[in-house]
Amino acid sequence: MRIFLFDEGCTELDALPHELPPRGYLWVAPARREFELQAGALQDALQRWTGVQLVDLHVSDLLNPQLPSHFDYTSDYDMLVFRRLAAAPGSDGLFLDEDHGTVSSAMQALRAIDTSPVGFVVFDRLLLSVHPTDCQVRDVFATKLLQSGFGGRLPNSPADLMLRVVNHMVDSYLQLRRLLTRQLTTLQQDLLGPRNRRVNWQALLESRNTLHLLEDVCEDQHGAVQEWLDALGEWPAEPDPRAARERELLRLRSRDVQEHIERVLSHVRRLQASAESAVQMHFSAQGQRTNDIMRTLTVLTAIFLPLNLITGFFGMNFDGLPLIHRSTGVWIAAATMALIGGGLGIYFWRKRYLGTHASP
User: Fold this and answer.
1) Most CB within 10 Å of its CB: which of 16, 89, 346, 359?
2) How confident is residue 99, by pLDDT bands cut at 50, 70 and 90?
3) What digits encode the pLDDT tens for the residues 247-290?
């Protein structure tokens, strides 16, 4: 569990304080397992700090690793569950490998997207965030706060801090766009390769399911942030101009997070469309190859058909056939067959019935 005090700066505390500081606010960020083990101590601390405890249903939501993104609120606090989009643990080498050239490797990259939920509980002077055990968002964000303090622009409130962490999680997926696009390009090349004879349809099905999952996650994220924006608009007006200005900046940052989610959603839908287009182009290319093969076989049949007619005619069991008793008859028949076959071959070649191009 990591605990941070925001007051003129950012300081990390070793343990939960007995009372809230007279100024500033706290950020308590346990891992999900720590939150489960220390739920009683955290509830007691919340009772001392804010006079209320988390509702049991919200505690269950924060402990649920399969919960979709959503927003809920009470009269004392707001709760936002936001599923992160990041590379799964141990997948760094997979994404950074430039030599992947198979459908299977591309699908492994798509399956290497982790969508674990991160829960946020926002009080007036306290932010409680519950992270997955392997979540690097908390540590990366905390390092930025402790080292640079974001250039002296520390979050003004727990809600502002929550939106910055959410924005960081969304931007972490935006950084994977190039990698996913490269893997999808590899998939398309494998599907459309002229020498490709086998397609891993199981991998294609998994890729489609993965992209559908990403779309559902993004839509849930968008809906959760929209509900947060609606709730933010229902907060009572601030008579203090400075507080009203901070409230407006909070709305602005919320809309910025929503715009980033929309960009992620648009990119996921483009990936879906590209995957579907690649499959359709694969079947179109296979149909075109089949048509080329059938056209070539038909032309060869048309060339050899008159030759078979000639050999069948002279192969009849009659004694009065022309040229049958002449010593030059076989050569005349062979020359006639070669002339007819060569002439038909040249004719079909000029008509572009032979070769890799279709006839006009």
Assistant:
1) 16
2) very low
3) 788 788 888 888 888 887 888 788 878 777 777 877 787 788 88
The partner residues of 78 in beta bridges, in order of sequence, read: 73, 122
pLDDT of residue 121: 92
Span between the terminal Cα atoms of the chain, in Å: 72
CA gap 182, 82 in Å, rounded: 27
Phi-psi region of 8 (alpha: psi -120 to 50; beta: other; left: phi over 0): left
Q: What are phi and psi of 128, to 5 degrees?
A: -110, 120
Architecture of domain 290-350: Up-down Bundle (1.20)
Task: State in words which class domain 2-286 has.
Answer: alpha beta
Cα separation of 178 and 271, whole Å? 11
- All structural domains of the chain with their residue ranges: 2-286, 290-350
Cα 55 from Cα 59, distance rounded (Å): 6
